[in-house]
């Protein structure tokens, strides 16, 4: 139980929602059959193109048709499925929401993107997710027979404290469905994953849509899995594909024993306040 296979589906999401979902389900089968994965993840906004102009049009309630399909796929293949994210409508608001399903098809957790992607790099990349979306305000962790896994979405990876909270709560793998762009992707996408993996001595996986040069928002691709030593175990190029890697929890323990930063940190000088009351110290 100390080893398991994680697969990331770098799906090319187009304008046809039902086709996106249908193809995601086909790829999930291939992640299980061809990669022997027991944990599978889809990208951010996998049932719609990514962009503020699309969120309302593609939004669904949860449960709804897309999450029903994910639930059935998790049950059919007896896997943990991190359902990327979809635009969710609830109480007149829109959210960027990830859902997680267990091997019996039950939705075991869900997550609304906490940090909305509002940036302005003049002449290169301006995006304001908060024009149409509302932020969530809860975390998302789920237990498997292997370890606890934490989920957050894309821009959330830039916030080191959030990953630290997950690590402190005992997560050994963090999965970020994401869709970095052609400005920040080449510079920061892999570096951020390696930083979070190294800071917290855990596995980090980030799963992007495949690049579509004709889309209004061009995703960088390069879905990747990083180990607690910050090695890149698997990395896609920009095309539609599955990447997978073995998660080895004995290796994680070895890294933590060799460089025992979680025992050496000076909680008397600095500490994470926000979840200190509700999340126990490192397990
Ligand atoms: O942080 C970035 O550079 C990209 C973030 C992003 O694309 C997102 O949150 O959807």
UniProtKB/TrEMBL annotation:
Pfam families: CN_hydrolase (PF00795). Belongs to the carbon-nitrogen hydrolase superfamily. NIT1/NIT2 family. It comes from Hypsibius exemplaris (Freshwater tardigrade). It catalyses: 2-oxoglutaramate + H2O = 2-oxoglutarate + NH4(+); 2-oxosuccinamate + H2O = oxaloacetate + NH4(+). GO terms for biological process: asparagine metabolic process; glutamine metabolic process; oxaloacetate metabolic process. The keyword Transmembrane does not apply. Keywords: Hydrolase. Its EC number is 3.5.1.3. This is omega-amidase. One of its GO terms (molecular function) is omega-amidase activity.
